[in-house]
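Form 7-S
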Amino acid sequence: MLALIDGARVSIRCETYIWSDDEVGDRFRGALTRAAARGVQVRVLVDGVGSAELPDDYWVGLEHAGGSARIFNPLSLRHFALRNHRKLLLVDDVTAIIGGFNLGLAYDGDGVTRGWRDLGVELRAPAALRQLAESFDSLFRDHRLRHWLMRHVRRTSLRWPRFYTRAGPVLFSGPRLVRNQFSRQLLLALREAKHVRIVSAYFLPGFRLRRALRQVARRGGTVELLLAGKTDVPLAQLAARTLYGSLLKAGVRIWEYQPQILHTKLAIIDDAVFVGTANLDARSLGINYELMVHLDDAGLTRAATASFVGDLQHAREITRIDWREKQTWSLRLRGAWARFLLTKVDPWLARQQMRNIP
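Output:
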């Protein structure tokens, strides 16, 4: 990513949920400032909650050099639930990188001995780049949430943005997009799937997706899930583990990654690969702005499979017997409460806040 920024000649679009005020964040800010100083159009978009700890004057140097930085939905009690969870670097409209990693020291490492375990993909397909550029420009322009989708208009008069309807491999989701493209494509792919491998940092899918995974296993397919053994959100892990029993009973195999915090978002379904920023939880699938890419590419599938198999070497398999032995009444009660908060209360709160956006 830094090499792409240093080689940029025309434009840089950089978008992330968390930008940390640390060594890694400073390296990226410095590279972008130098690019702006040599005449490159530099635009940065960070989330108001994910990057809330940045000092007020953090972007002064970049802006003096000619760049622009915006905060998506600045932190406020009125609209705090609506977040931009996307991560994107698009350089000169010819190369893009998307994935799960934010820009901070926590992500700097191999994911085994140090640093969170994460994954990204480099894209050069023109169709994908057009979608990414248009979606970035839309969110950058309407970073205060005065987006046409968010205004009080009758549903019959809504027209989808061009990036949402344009043909291409990028799948979008966000408040009031109505149809989550990633969830829809994932369910379609699972209908006839024989081999499913999924890595998810925060795993709390809805009923339809859980049923689809169980059906693949019950009709003789293989379903393998790699989930977080260590986590930065204990509430999410507590809720996720309440789902293990029914999946294991259906024949789904589950592993938990052990060395570091797992943050990867990846699904390999037969010959297709989904990779990007969305977790399989209620927030990514129904609240956040997210993006995923869906590609049928043999080389990418091999690389993703090799990554999955390699990560299993550092994971512990959860058997049905192990899971049942640990399910005390106290743990079940706390898990049910966590699940209720994340699948009912959080979405309800987001819906209420969407109604108040002018």
